[in-house]
């Protein structure tokens, strides 16, 4: 039971990252390889704010995602937009290059050792069956609330309607008077902000180091594929699912725990090529 | 209202339109008739801005269209009814109706849409593509009427519909004509075309080969149907 809970906490990060990736992929058709680096920047942002300016965790939780969102907006305007009409491979190369640059910049400054970040809540909660660190419970709650909020915006608001339409058929959406290009920048910024939020949440419980995102992003790509490319709902659900599967795998078949996610991905792709919640037409 | 002058269009090396010139006056319903591959759909796509490899002029109420992005054309009053109906699967029926902004002076209200198409009202919470083909066609027409578009570009709205539904599409086209909406319509069924349209252009191999009125089409119906392979 405790392992399931551990899994849900890991899943919180997968879900937040996969959600951002899915929204960006849907709206821009860009596989954002730099998503892991943005997550890493989020954690470092919190760390630097704390050590250099004494800004506490709670303030960082608000400031860092905002700053990263702005960074994403600039990046989209400056670089990603220029590649929009080219083969998606170019944007893959761009974001991959960006990842290396960001990682090396931080490596230069901080090396590859992990930087300590004190947990903002040190209490434990009695969950009946076992004691659990309160901070981890907060992370899980935070992730669920954010995912629900995004779901609400996507399914119930006019902005969400436009994002869904533009994700499905961008050219047709323009033919109905919607300036899709105008929505691309904020959506990208928002996806990056989500990665930043995940990064800040990770700082007190994961090792803050320049490669923390690179380790995670491969799993998150598997999560997005399992959930179904372009399906935000699928990505979130698959995020929590993979968290739990990975955690149980760790307990019962430790030798396989790293590969389990990819075995699951292969199985899902054989069974449903579009992923659990993907639409078949998204493949063409 | 719409003036097309020496419009040529290509798909890579292949030329799909060859110096097409035609005009549509306000309040007219004009059809484009021709075999598959004659360039009818390409012509509509050029007007909407969905096909970009072109030369020549396209003017809508004096505004040069090729310089304008697609969404601006929609906001000027072009209403798009795509050949595959263009219904969004990830939007409900009602969201499909509400997605486009209102652009014209005389838009249909949601209430009027639902009175005219009770079936859409019943299914307004369903995903758009869960409707039958005929219902999707009604939705596609209703959507541009709710926008208040003044020039509808309809790519074969009757294709694959039962005679009853074809008749219903005809009723809608005649109704909006009295409202002053202009329509450029692709229609293979000339028998149906004469019941809704004022004039017809016959396209072949990317050219306008003939301009016909209803009497001429009626007189030559058998010949035309045979030519079109219907």
Describe it.
The complex is a heterodimer of chains A (about 280) and B (about 230). By secondary structure, chain A is mostly helical. Helices cover about 70% and strands about 0% of the residues of chain A. Chain A has a two-stranded antiparallel sheet. The model of chain A has no long low-confidence stretch (mean pLDDT about 90). Chain B has helices at about 40-50, 70-75, 95-100, 110-115, 120, 135-145, 165-180, 190-195, 215-220, 220-230, and strands at about 1-10, 15-25, 30-35, 55-60, 65, 80, 150-155, 180-185, 200-205, 205-215. Chain B has a single domain (about 30-50, about 75-230), classed as Rossmann fold (3-Layer(aba) Sandwich). Chain B contains ten helices and ten strands. At the A-B interface, helix 6 and helix 7 of A face helix 2 of B.
Would you spell out the secondary-structure blueprint of this structure?
The complex is a heterodimer of chains A (284) and B (230).
Chain A: H1 2-28, H2 35-53, H3 57-78, H4 88-110, E1 124-126, E2 131-133, H5 134-156, H6 158-168, H7 170-175, H8 180-202, H9 212-227, H10 232-252, H11 260-271
Antiparallel strand pairs in A: 1-2
Chain B: E1 2-11, E2 14-24, E3 29-34, H1 40-48, E4 54-60, E5 63-64, H2 70-76, E6 78-81, H3 93-98, H4 110-116, H5 118-122, H6 133-147, E7 151-155, H7 163-178, E8 182-186, H8 190-196, E9 199-204, E10 207-213, H9 214-219, H10 221-228
Parallel strand pairs in B: 3-8, 3-9, 6-7, 7-8
Antiparallel strand pairs in B: 1-2, 1-4, 4-5, 9-10
